[in-house]
Structure formats: structure tokens, C-alpha cells
Design goal:
This protein has four helices and seven strands. The chain is of the alpha+beta class. It has a three-stranded antiparallel sheet. Strands 1-2 form a two-stranded antiparallel sheet. The chain has a two-stranded antiparallel ribbon with strand order 5-6.
């Protein structure tokens, strides 16, 4: 952090605010712990973490990450399937043409066929991300009563004074 100091007539570092670099990413076992639901990790944050972990510059890491993302997009655009063992599988599927309805005008419209990207979660990610959160109590399925009673007939309608 820099601040303008009138006494020294120049820019000097502001040492009043402590800067602590983010800690390195946790090992696999620690990544399975729950994180705040509202946190978002950006590409910039990932580049920073990877650069610190590997010792490479952020510029090099950013280029590699961007090249990886561009390659994934290019391969999916060609209709190829991309598989990262333990992480997951990306694939392109065709969604058929269908009828839909405009909710405002209730007019029927045709939604054309289109290609969409599907992602299937891999085992390691499923074990880490999709496992139950330790803080929340597990909800058990309701148990069936030990005895099943015969169904009761529906009540008969009340008498009507209508001539019909």
C-alpha cells in the first residue's frame, strides 16, 4: 500500500496496514471441509494460489490457465468429450427442439435444437464436495409404521338441497 505523505513530499509505503499473503491451498483432506456458501473464487485468485504453490510468476501461470481453458472450449466446440480422471467429464449433448410458452402472452413458441455442455462429477470431487456437511444434522427418511392399517374410505358428501 502506498500513501502520499506531505511531510516527506513523495510516495512512501504505508506500513500501518499489515499485508499477509494468502495461505497455500490445503491438502486434499482439508479441502473436504465445508466452506462458506457465499464465497466465490475467481480465476485471478486461482492464478495467485498456483503461482505461490509452484514458485512460477503469475504471468506464466495465468497464460497456462488461460491456455487450458481455451483448449477445453475448442475441444468441446468440436464435439469432443473431455475427461479428467477423478475430477469429472465434460461433454456436448444436443437438446431437441421443443414447444414452449411465453408466460406473459401465453403464446406458443418453438425453441430450436441446440447444443449444451454437460458435466459429470468425478469420484474425487464427489467424495469431497458432495458429501454431507458435518455441521448440519442428517435428516433420516421417515420410517414406515410397524403395522399397516387398511385405507379408510373417503367421507360421503353432505346432502344437498339442489333439485338436480
Amino acid at each position: 500500500m502506498w500513501r502520499f505523505d506531505n511531510h516527506n513530499r513523495g510516495h512512501q509505503p504505508d506500513y500501518r496496514q499489515a499485508f499477509s499473503p494468502p495461505s497455500p491451498p490445503p491438502p486434499f483432506a482439508a479441502c473436504c471441509m465445508s466452506a462458506p456458501k457465499s464465497s466465490t473464487v475467481t480465476k485471478k485468485e486461482l492464478v495467485h494460489r498456483i503461482a505461490e504453490e509452484t514458485g512460477h510468476t503469475k504471468v506464466v501461470v495465468k497464460e497456462v490457465v488461460q491456455l487450458l481453458l481455451d483448449t477445453i472450449i475448442d475441444e468441446l466446440a468440436r464435439g469432443k468429450r473431455i475427461e479428467f480422471r477423478e475430477f469429472g467429464v465434460f461433454e456436448v449433448r444436443s437438446r431437441a427442439e421443443r414447444q414452449a410458452q411465453n408466460p406473459r402472452t401465453l403464446e406458443k413458441v418453438v425453441v430450436p435444437e441446440k447444443r449444451v455442455v454437460k458435466f459429470k462429477v468425478g469420484r474425487k470431487m464427489r467424495d469431497c464436495v458432495c458429501s454431507p456437511i458435518a455441521d448440519e444434522p442428517r435428516r433420516e427418511a421417515p420410517k414406515a409404521p410397524p403395522e399397516t392399517l387398511p385405507p379408510t374410505p373417503p367421507p360421503s358428501p353432505p346432502p344437498s338441497n339442489s333439485p338436480f
